[in-house]
């Protein structure tokens, strides 16, 4: 057996990795089921980002979307959060409130899906 054939055979024998995204999404709610003034954990993809001043403080605002809708994710006092850019998959958890007339989470706890580049 050639070294390449042995390597390929070993790769086939290795247990498949657990899908990190599926694991991260455990216990999340669809965005459409999130209610104002309740604690929620949602998963989705960042659709858009912008820096908008709020009370004189730079604020990073993003829209996190899933198949059911979108929610604003707001990081007060931040112009940039490393790893967060349009297209990033993330899970956020926090209290749902109102920001600019939309459902939003202010300074939520978050986890990013590791992207292998």
The CATH topology is what? OB fold (Dihydrolipoamide Acetyltransferase, E2P)
Gross geometry = globular
What portion of the residues fall into strands of 2 or more residues? over 45%
Task: Give the SSE string.
Answer: HHEEEEEE
Number of strands: 6
What is the CA–CA distance across the termini?
32 Å
Radius of gyration: 19 Å
Q: What is the count of structural domains? A: 1
Number of helices: 2
- Which CATH architecture would you pick? Beta Barrel
CATH homologous superfamily annotation: Nucleic acid-binding proteins
CATH class label: Mainly Beta
Helix content: 10-25%
Side by side, the strands of the main sheet go: 1-2-3-5-4
Unreliable stretches covering 5 or more consecutive residues: 11-18
Specify the biggest β-sheet. 5 strands, mixed, barrel
Give average pLDDT, whole number: 86
Structural class: mainly beta
Description:
By secondary structure, the chain is mostly beta strands. It has a single domain (3-112), classed as Nucleic acid-binding proteins (OB fold (Dihydrolipoamide Acetyltransferase, E2P)), CATH 2.40.50.140. It is built from two helices and six strands. It has helices at 3-13, 20-24, and strands at 39-54, 57-66, 69-76, 89-99, 102-106, 109-112. The protein has a five-stranded mixed barrel. A hairpin with a 2-residue loop joins strand 1 (39-54) and strand 2. The longest helix is centred in the N-terminal third of the chain and has 11 residues, at 3-13. The protein starts with a helix and ends in a 5-residue tail after the last strand. The model is unreliable at 11-18 (pLDDT under 50).
